[in-house]
Amino acid sequence: MRTLHDENQASPHLHVAVDFDGVLAWTMESVVPKLQDDDTGPEWFDESQIDYYEWVIDEFGAEEFREVYDQTMSEEWRYIKPWGYEYSTRRNLQQMANVATVDVVTKQPSANHDAVIDGKNKWLVEQGLDTLIDRLISVDMDVDKSRLGYDVLINDCPYYLQDTLDYQTLILIDHHYNRPAVVDLDPTEYIRGTMNTAANIVYMEAQ
């Protein structure tokens, strides 16, 4: 992680929260096939699939999901792929880190909290992203990220983006499971795009 004495430390006037699962890491590609107990790949990746946030819990149950998520993140983190191309993810985070304080803020469905956070830290190091962020912050599932004081929130889950404050910018990373045909959201309340979109917006807001 970057330190406060880092000569490249950005001005703290802009604070950015980047989600982990579904934004930096393609965690569900590893988790869902284990829940399905076969090698056919994640059925939920079908673009016709309705809202996977509800589907995963309805299909497998919250307890089973947590168990598989915990095991995957704590023991098999090395096999989790980055979302998008590795180079582009690093490049986009670097662009944000040059002009803002960047934290990875992750909701934690896990009962095995310390081991899962350790796995996420190791994954960030493995991907070369640890030096581009200031902190990895874990919050409980019932915590509203919009109340943590960040200026820009970058997330893939639309349900975390509905109670934001006027000064905050919401960037919803585009996936088939969070598009308007699936999730009912007011399009004036957020910006839909990629991590490249997010990096450009952070850069412009920091000027």
What's the short story on this structure?
The chain has helices at residues 28-36, 52-60, 62-75, 86-97, 113-126, 195-206; strands spanning 15-18, 101-108, 135-140, 152-155, 169-173, 191-193. It is of the alpha/beta class. Helix 1 packs across helix 3 (62-75), helix 2 packs across helix 3 and helix 3 crosses helix 5.
Structure explained in plain terms:
The structure is a single chain. This protein is of the alpha/beta class and 207 residues long. The chain has two domains: 15-26 and 81-206, HAD superfamily/HAD-like (Rossmann fold, 3-Layer(aba) Sandwich), CATH 3.40.50.1000; 28-79, no CATH class. The protein is 34% helix and 14% strand. It is built from six helices and six strands. Helix 5 links the parallel strand 2 (101-108) and strand 3. The longest helix has 14 residues, at 62-75. Mean pLDDT is 81; it is low at 3-10.
Describe the secondary structure blueprint for this structure.
Elements: E1 15-18, H1 28-36, H2 52-60, H3 62-75, H4 86-97, E2 101-108, H5 113-126, E3 135-140, E4 152-155, E5 169-173, E6 191-193, H6 195-206
Keywords:
six-stranded parallel sheet, Rossmann fold, disordered N terminus, 6 strands, globular, alpha/beta, 207 residues
Order of strands, main sheet, comes to 3-2-1-4-5-6
Examine the coordinates and then state which fold CATH places here, giving the name of the CATH topology of the largest domain. Rossmann fold
Main β-sheet description: 6 strands, parallel
Low-confidence stretches: 3-10
Q: Overall pLDDT, averaged?
A: 81
Please report the first level of CATH classification, the CATH class of the largest domain. Answer: Alpha Beta
Oligomer: single chain
